[in-house]
Design brief:
There is one protein chain. The protein is of the alpha/beta class. Among the domains are: about 140 residues, no CATH class; about 270 residues, no CATH class; about 35 residues, no CATH class. The chain has 27 helices and 15 strands. A seven-stranded mixed sheet has the order 3-2-1-7-11-9-14, with helices on both faces. The chain has a three-stranded antiparallel sheet with strand order 5-4-6. It has a three-stranded mixed sheet with strand order 8-15-10. Helix 3 packs across helix 18. The longest helix has about 35 residues. It is globular, with a radius of gyration of 30 Å. The N and C termini lie far apart (about 90 Å).
Length: about 775
C-alpha cells in the first residue's frame, strides 16, 4: 500500500530547474507578495455591509447638500453675475454630478458583491463528481492567438488541457499570416503551431494508463474493497507524481511562470494527493467508498488527461472572413462547428465546402453544448469548467447564456505600473461580481463559458464574395464582449459572474503595452449605448420589469470612461470660480475613496494605492480621451476599428510620443494653476492643483520613467518627421499571344478578370481596349 502522503504545499523553487535570469529588472516599489488570493471570497462582516450602505447614503446626501448649499445659493446670491458665471456654475455642477454618479455606482456595485459573497457556498467536490458521472455533453475551448509569444500560449493551453472535464476539445485559433517572409516570425509561428501536438503527445501516456485503469475497474467490480482502494491509490499516486515531475521540469523566469507551476500544475497535484490521503485513511480504518464513488474517482483521472487538441488557421481558407479582429477569428471556427468540411483547391486558394462524403483530409468540427473562449494570455484553475458548467445546469439558470469568473491579476509584479494596473484589475473583479447581483453583468472576453444555443439565437448571416459569413460575436467595436452582452439580453438571455477566483490574466508590464490595452478598452462603449436603449425599449414593450439600478450600472459601465475623462480634463484645464468649491464635494467623494482603499487592502494591496491609482489615471487621461474620440469618429464614419492586441513581451514596448508628452503637460499646467491661484488667494484650487501636480509627476516617474519618456518622445518625433519614399507605380501588363504560357488560367476561370470588370464599370476605354487585344 502507498505510504501516507503529506498534503502541504511543496516549495515551488525546489520543483523548478535553475531559473533563467529574468529579462525584466524588478523595480523598487514592485509587489513582493506572490501568493494569490483565496479562490473563495471571505464572508463579509455585518459591519462591512452596514458601512457600505452608509457610504451610499452619505454620497447621495452630500451631493444633494452641495447642490442646495453651493449651486442654488450662488445663483441666488449673484443674480446679476453674468453669463460666464452661470455657465461655469452649471458646467461645474454637471462635471461634479457625473463624477459623483460614477463614485456612487462603484459603491452600489461593491455592495452587491458583498451580498453575493455573504450568500455564496462552494459546491462540494463530491456533488460535482456525482453530477458529471456518465456525462455526455462537451466543451470546445477556443483560444484566439495573434502574434503571441509561444511560451505565453503554451501556459494557456496547458491550463485548459488540465481542466477536469469529461469531454474537452481545445482549438488554438492562430490568426497570424500563414506564410510570413521574415524568418524570425516564421520560426515563432511554427513553434506556436506545434504547441497542440506537443501537449497532446505529453498527455497521451498518462491518459492511456488511466483509461486502462478505469476499464479494468469496470471489468472486475466485485473484488474486495481493500484491493480496490489499493489499486485506486496507486493510480492517484501516479497522477500526482506525473504532475510533480512536470512542475519540476518547468523553467520559472517570472511571476507568471511561478503562478503556472504552483497554482495550475502543483495545485492540481495537491488536490490529487488530498484524495490520496482520504483513500489511505479509509484503508487504515478498514472501510472503502462504495462502487459508484470508486467509479467517479477513476473517472476523474480520465477527465484530467483525456483531451483533444488541434490548431486552426482561418487565413488559410478563402471562404472564411479575414477581418482583422478577435471576434471574427472566433466566429470563423464557430461557424464550422457541427459539419464536415472538404478542402477544395481553387485557383491557388483553398475553400471549405460542406460535404457528406468522407475524405482523408476533411476538416471535422464537432458541435458541443458549450464553448469556452479563452484569451491566449490567461490561465484557468483546475475546476473552472466543472464548476461553471454545473452552475449553468443548476435549477433556475436555464436562461443563463454566459458565465465567467472575472479574471484576477498575477501577484508578484516586477514593475510598479504592473502592480498598480493589477490592483485596478482586482477592483474590477469585485465590481463585476457586484453587477451580477443587480442583473447588469457584462461578458468580459478574457474567459467565459457560453451556451452554443445562445449564440445561435444572435447569429447574423450575410454573403460576402459568394460565401456565407456567420457572425455570432459582433466585430463592430473592439470591445466585442460588451456588445454581445447587449445582443444576448435582447433575446432574453442572462449573464452571470461566478463568485470565485478561478481565472487569471496578464497585466501590461510597461506603459507602452498599457496604452494599447486601455485605448482599446476606452473605444466602443458609446457606440453600444443606442443598442442598449433599443433593448430596454423591447423589454418595456414586453412589460418586463427593468430595475433602475441595472440600467444605471450598465450605462455607467459603457460611458463612464467618456464623461470621467472629459470631466477630469475640464477640472484640470478650466479656471473655475473658487466660489463653486465646497468641502461638501470632498465629503461626497470621501466614501468612494475610503471604500476603494478598503477593497484594495482586502485584495492584498495597500490602502495608499488610492493615490497611486489617481496618478495612474492622470497619466492615462490622454489614452482614454483618444479611445473616446475614436469611438466618436467611428460613429460618424461607420468604419470598423481593427483589433490591436496588447503586447505581452519581455522587452519594453515603446509608447506613442503624444501619450508620453501630455502627462508632462498636465504637471506643467497644474504648476501654472498653483501659481495663478496663489496670487488670487483661491486656496481650494491651489490644493487641487498641487495634488494633481504631485501625483502626476510621481506617476510619470514610477510608471513611465524619465529616461523612457525621452526615448519614446525622440522616437515618436523621428517617426513623425520621417516620410517613406513613394514607390513608382508598376506598369500594367498587357496580355498578348506570346504570354499565353504564363497566364494563370485557373484564376481567370474562377475569378474572371477582376481588373477588366473594374475598368468596364469605370468606363476606361483605353484600358478596356488593352485588355481586349
Amino acid at each position: 500500500m502507498p505510504d501516507q502522503v503529506q498534503v502541504s504545499d511543496r516549495d515551488v523553487n525546489s520543483n523548478a530547474t535553475a531559473p533563467a535570469a529574468p529579462t525584466r529588472r524588478r523595480q523598487w516599489g514592485s509587489e513582493k507578495r506572490s501568493e494569490p488570493l483565496p479562490i473563495v471570497h471571505p464572508i463579509p462582516s455585518k459591519r462591512k455591509i452596514t458601512l457600505g450602505r452608509l457610504a451610499i447614503v452619505t454620497t447621495i446626501l452630500a451631493w444633494m447638500l452641495y447642490v442646495v448649499s453651493t449651486i442654488f445659493k450662488q445663483l441666488a446670491d449673484n443674480p446679476n453675475a453674468g453669463f460666464r458665471f452661470q455657465f461655469e456654475t452649471f458646467s461645474y455642477l454637471i462635471v461634479v454630478t457625473f463624477l459623483t454618479f460614477s463614485a456612487l455606482m462603484y459603491l452600489v456595485a461593491r455592495q452587491g458583491a458583498l451580498y453575493r459573497f455573504r450568500e455564496h457556498r462552494r459546491v462540494p467536490r463530491g456533488e460535482l463528481d456525482r453530477h458529471f458521472h456518465d456525462y455526455s455533453e462537451g466543451i470546445t475551448v477556443l483560444v484566439p492567438s495573434y502574434a503571441e509569444e509561444p511560451v505565453v500560449v503554451r501556459g494557456t493551453l496547458w491550463s485548459a488541457a488540465l481542466q477536469e472535464f469529461p469531454d474537452l476539445k481545445i482549438v488554438l485559433l492562430v490568426d497570424d499570416p500563414p506564410a510570413p517572409t521574415d524568418p524570425a516570425v516564421l520560426s515563432r509561428l511554427e513553434e506556436t503551431r506545434a504547441l497542440t501536438d506537443d501537449i497532446a503527445a505529453s498527455l497521451a501516456v498518462p491518459a492511456a494508463r488511466f483509461n486502462a485503469a478505469l476499464e479494468e475497474f469496470h471489468r472486475t467490480p466485485h473484488i474486495d474493497a481493500a484491493s480496490q482502494v489499493i489499486r485506486l491509490s496507486a493510480e492517484y499516486e501516479a497522477a500526482a507524481t506525473w504532475l510533480e515531475d512536470m512542475a519540476e521540469a518547468e523553467v520559472v523566469e517570472d511571476h507568471v511562470d511561478e503562478f503556472f507551476v504552483d497554482r495550475v500544475i502543483m495545485g492540481l497535484a495537491r488536490e490529487l494527493r488530498l484524495t490520496l490521503l482520504a483513500l489511505n485513511a479509509a484503508f487504515a480504518q478498514g472501510v472503502a467508498p462504495d462502487e459508484r464513488r470508486l467509479s467517479e474517482l477513476y473517472q476523474r483521472l480520465t477527465w484530467i488527461f483525456n483531451v483533444r487538441l488541434e490548431t486552426f488557421e482561418r487565413k488559410k481558407y478563402a471562404s472564411l472572413s479575414h477581418e482583422a479582429n478577435k471576434a471574427m477569428n472566433l466566429n470563423a471556427y464557430i461557424s464550422l462547428m457541427g459539419h464536415r468540411w472538404h478542402r477544395e483547391a481553387t485557383a491557388g486558394q483553398v475553400v471549405l465546402r460542406i460535404t457528406e462524403e468522407e475524405h482523408p483530409d476533411d476538416l471535422v468540427a464537432p458541435d458541443t453544448t458549450y464553448l469556452l473562449t479563452l484569451d491566449a494570455d490567461s490561465l484557468l484553475l483546475r475546476d473552472y469548467c466543472l464548476r461553471l458548467v454545473y452552475f449553468l445546469e443548476s435549477a433556475g439558470n436555464e436562461r443563463v447564456a454566459v458565465t465567467q469568473t472575472p479574471y484576477s491579476s498575477f501577484r508578484g509584479a516586477p514593475t510598479r505600473i504592473e502592480r498598480v494596473a493589477g490592483a485596478t484589475t482586482d477592483i474590477q473583479h469585485l465590481l463585476h461580481q457586484g453587477m451580477t447581483y443587480y442583473g447588469a453583468t457584462f461578458w468580459v472576453g478574457a474567459n467565459a463559458i457560453i451556451r452554443k444555443t445562445a449564440l445561435e439565437d444572435i447569429v447574423e448571416v450575410e454573403t460576402v464574395g459568394g460565401f456565407e459569413v456567420r457572425t455570432y460575436i459582433q466585430d463592430r467595436t473592439v470591445i466585442e464582449d460588451t456588445e454581445s452582452s447587449i445582443d444576448l439580453g435582447a433575446h432574453g438571455w442572462k449573464l452571470s459572474n461566478y463568485p470565485e477566483r478561478l481565472s487569471y490574466s496578464a497585466t501590461p508590464p510597461d506603459f507602452g503595452s498599457l496604452v494599447v490595452q486601455r485605448r482599446r478598452w476606452a473605444n466602443g462603449g458609446l457606440l453600444i449605448l443606442p443598442k442598449l436603449w433599443n433593448q430596454l425599449v423591447q423589454r418595456r414593450f414586453k412589460r418586463e420589469r427593468i430595475p433602475v439600478r441595472e440600467v444605471l450600472l450598465r450605462v455607467n459601465y459603457m460611458a463612464s470612461i467618456a464623461w470621467a475623462s472629459f470631466g477630469l480634463l475640464f477640472l484640470l484645464a478650466y479656471p473655475y470660480d473658487s466660489r463653486l468649491l465646497s468641502p461638501v464635494v470632498f465629503i461626497a467623494a470621501l466614501p468612494y475613496f475610503l471604500a476603494m482603499g478598503s477593497d484594495l487592502r482586502d485584495s492584498g494591496h495597500r490602502f495608499s494605492d488610492i493615490f497611486r491609482i489617481y496618478g495612474f489615471n492622470l497619466v492615462l487621461l490622454p489614452v482614454n480621451l483618444a479611445g473616446v474620440l475614436k469611438s466618436l469618429q467611428q460613429a460618424i464614419t461607420g468604419e470598423k476599428i481593427p483589433f490591436v492586441r496588447t503586447p505581452k513581451v519581455k522587452n519594453r514596448t515603446a509608447a506613442p510620443a503624444l501619450y508620453v508628452f501630455v502627462p508632462y503637460l498636465i504637471v506643467a499646467f497644474s504648476i501654472l494653476t498653483v501659481w495663478r491661484n496663489v496670487q488670487q488667494e483661491s486656496w481650494g484650487n491651489v490644493a487641487f492643483a498641487v495634488l494633481n501636480a504631485v501625483l502626476a509627476a510621481s506617476a510619470i516617474r514610477a510608471y513611465i520613467g524619465v529616461g523612457n519618456s525621452i526615448v519614446d518622445i525622440f522616437l515618436g518625433t523621428l517617426s513623425w518627421l520621417f516620410v517613406a519614399p513613394r514607390k513608382p507605380k508598376a506598369a500594367r501588363p498587357v496580355i498578348v499571344a506570346k504570354e499565353l504560357d504564363e497566364v494563370d488560367w485557373e484564376s481567370l476561370l474562377y475569378h474572371g478578370d477582376r481588373r477588366l470588370n473594374r475598368d468596364l464599370h469605370s468606363g476606361n476605354d483605353r484600358r478596356r481596349r488593352a485588355f481586349m487585344r
